[in-house]
Specification:
The protein has helices at about 5-10, 75-80, 95-105, 110-125, 130-135, 155-165, 180-185, 205-215, 230-240, 255-260, 270-275, 280-290, 305-315, 325, and strands at about 15, 20-35, 40-55, 55-65, 145-150, 170-175, 195, 220-225, 245-250, 265-270, 295-300, 320, 340, 340-345. By secondary structure, the protein is α/β, with parallel strands linked by helices. Strands 5-6-7-8-9-10-11-12 form an eight-stranded parallel sheet. Strand 3 and strand 4 form a beta hairpin. The longest helix is centred in the first third of the chain and has 18 residues, at about 110-125. The two termini are about 30 Å apart. The structure holds magnesium ion (MG). Magnesium ion binds near residues 199, 224, 225 and 269.
Length: about 350
């Protein structure tokens, strides 16, 4: 759904004014370049920007509803009409919160994430604690974040790489017809380490393994979702034979999927818009550690709000791919601090989200 900036700025609905107030607005987040992966392309992403207010303090949340995940403004509005936040008490029990949201209806992880993120921000502000500290994250353990270089013509790929100067790792989307040429184009102008995301786009097992060995020589550090998510046999075989880590993304959505990834992948890609927010993402990290799985924390097209929510958990992960603010044109919030290729966590209470300068 397309909405104007004027519409974006105006809360369209207010829910449950008794104790907490929940308001939300649709927002169209525009991408700097069309986002293209193996079977798909788009120029913008529909968001819900959501606020929960309690006694004059406001927590901010966000749902990024990429079309292939099935959520949109209409599904989010229908869901939010069923949400009652008046029973919530501080300190919040996030197990209860997520159980409540899941009981309303299954699925809809992005709009559930918006509520979860806003409640974490709100609770952090009420108790004057930065969100990252409440998860036991250490700000000095922040991993460098990669920036995604989407599929494009060689000329535009070169331009994107040159524009990505602030990042120390590039993530390359493969799974098209010219994967090797695309890597060679990047290597002609950059020696930065690479992550590869095939987005389920590879189909031939032995050819894929040969290609992975070649990618290793090119400085690729990990590969996301090489084969279709339902092809467990092929993904397991690649994991067993690959010289670099194979990471499940589309195959891993919520907590229940983590144990299924064990033996099939070396690690998992956790995203707040899949996990229904920060609380379950944190549980997924803990579960992955129990199972000796590596953890990449990733994102959809997101503003500073969801980026900071993910960054609060990133020090607990092995790798970060949190590039939303770099790839979008109309982030409604101030950019978080970014230094030496890493997001900087501040000691502001809650998420540390700031207004646009
Ligand atoms: Mg991916």
């Amino acid at each position: 759904m397309l909405v104007s900036l004027e519409q974006n700025a105006k809360p369209i609905r207010m829910l449950n004014t008794k104790i907490m107030k929940l308001t939300y607005q649709p927002y169209q987040l525009n991408l700097k370049y069309p986002f293209t992966i193996a079977h798909y392309s788009r120029t913008h992403t529909p968001l819900i920007l959501l606020q929960i207010e309690h006694e004059g303090i406001t927590g901010f949340g966000e749902a990024s509803m990429v079309p292939y995940m099935g959520e949109n403004f209409e599904t989010a509005s229908i869901f939010l009409k069923k949400v009652d936040v008046s029973w919530l008490k501080f300190p919040l029990n996030f197990d209860e919160v997520i159980t409540y949201l899941d009981c309303i209806t299954p699925g809809h992880p992005a709009i559930k994430a918006a509520i979860d993120i806003a409640l974490h921000d709100l609770e952090g502000k009420i108790f004057a604690i930065p969100c990252y500290k409440s998860f036991g994250s250490q700000s000095d353990k922040m991993p460098v974040t990669s920036i995604t270089i989407g599929m494009d013509t060689p000329q535009v790929i070169v331009q994107k790489v040159l524009e990505a100067k602030q990042c120390k790792i590039l993530k390359v989307k493969l799974g098209g017809q010219n994967d090797k040429a695309l890597i060679e184009t990047i290597r002609s102008i950059s020696n930065l380490p690479l992550y590869v995301d095939a987005n389920q786009g590879w189909t031939h097992l032995e050819k894929s393994l040969d290609f992975i060995y070649w990618l290793k020589e090119q400085g690729v550090l990990l590969i996301e979702q090489p084969m279709p998510k339902n092809d467990i046999t092929s993904n397991s075989w690649l994991t067993e034979n690959s010289p670099i880590p194979i990471i499940g993304d589309e195959a891993v959505q919520r907590l229940g999927d983590v144990s299924k990834a064990s033996g099939v992948y070396h690690g998992i890609n956790i995203k707040l818009m899949k996990s229904a927010g920060m609380h379950e993402a944190h549980q997924m990290i803990l579960k992955a550690r129990d199972l000796n799985l590596k953890v990449l924390i990733g994102c959809m097209s997101e503003t500073s709000c969801a980026t900071l929510a993910s960054a609060a958990l990133a020090p607990l992960c092995d790798w970060a791919d949190l590039d939303g603010p770099f790839l979008t044109k109309n982030n409604p919030y101030g950019d978080p601090m970014f230094r030496s290729g890493k997001w900087v966590l501040t000691d502001d209470p809650g998420l540390g989200l700031v207004k646009k300068a």
